[in-house]
């Protein structure tokens, strides 16, 4: 079993990727978008966090979260978003897929906290999948 390294930084800024089971292209359907939006809003109401950025693709999504000061419980938020999404998906008539063998294991936290204030323009940084902000502002002028 892999030895996951999880980064817990209270009030941190995190970049995540979440993939659907068997890469089913459900997230950009009308039902998928609605269920995900409602799930995120529900969890934000119960466990606040700032949704700094999101990219939604048919079978996965990328997101940047900023947690409140003193709070590092992003795994709780992920668990609740997945639960809320699934409940809404099934209630809306979405098909239930068989559960994976890894059900219950930790999500792929291959991405750690970003080392910047979270207020800078995201497009002005290079973000590696490893999670660190590694670039500098890109010049818009050509030399």
Please give a structural write-up.
This protein is of the alpha+beta class and 143 residues long. It has a domain at 13-93 and 109-115: 2-Layer Sandwich (Alpha-Beta Plaits). The protein contains two helices and four strands; from the N terminus they run E-H-E-E-H-E. A four-stranded antiparallel β-sheet has the order 2-3-1-4, with no helix packed on it. Helix 1 (30-46) crosses helix 2. Residues 105-143 have low confidence and may be disordered.
Give the name of the CATH superfamily of the domain at 13-93 and 109-115. Answer: Transposase IS200-like
Order of helices and strands: EHEEHE
Q: What is the mean pLDDT?
A: 77
Secondary-structure-based class equals alpha+beta
* Helical proportion, percent range: 10-25%
Largest sheet: 4 strands, antiparallel
Enter the CATH topology name of the domain at 13-93 and 109-115. Answer: Alpha-Beta Plaits
Which CATH C-level class of the domain at 13-93 and 109-115 is it?
A: Alpha Beta
Strands, count: 4
SS summary, helix count: 2
The largest sheet has its strands arranged as: 2-3-1-4
Choose one word for the global shape: globular
Unreliable spans are: 105-143
In whole angstroms, the N-to-C terminal distance is 50 Å
Oligomer: single chain
Radius of gyration: 16 Å
């Amino acid at each position: 079993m892999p030895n996951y390294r999880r980064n817990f930084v209270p009030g941190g800024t995190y970049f995540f990727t979440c993939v659907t089971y068997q890469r089913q292209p459900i997230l950009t359907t009308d039902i998928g978008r609605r269920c995900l939006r409602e799930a995120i809003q529900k969890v934000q109401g119960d466990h606040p966090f700032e949704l700094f950025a999101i990219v939604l693709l048919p079978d996965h999504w990328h997101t940047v979260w900023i947690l409140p000061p003193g709070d590092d419980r992003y795994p709780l938020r992920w668990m609740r978003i997945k639960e809320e999404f699934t409940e809404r998906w099934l209630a809306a008539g979405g098909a239930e897929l068989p559960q994976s063998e890894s059900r219950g294991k930790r999500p792929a936290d291959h991405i750690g906290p970003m080392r910047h204030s979270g207020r800078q323009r995201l497009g002005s940084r290079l973000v590696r999948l490893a999670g660190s902000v590694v670039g500098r502002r890109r010049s818009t002028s050509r030399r």
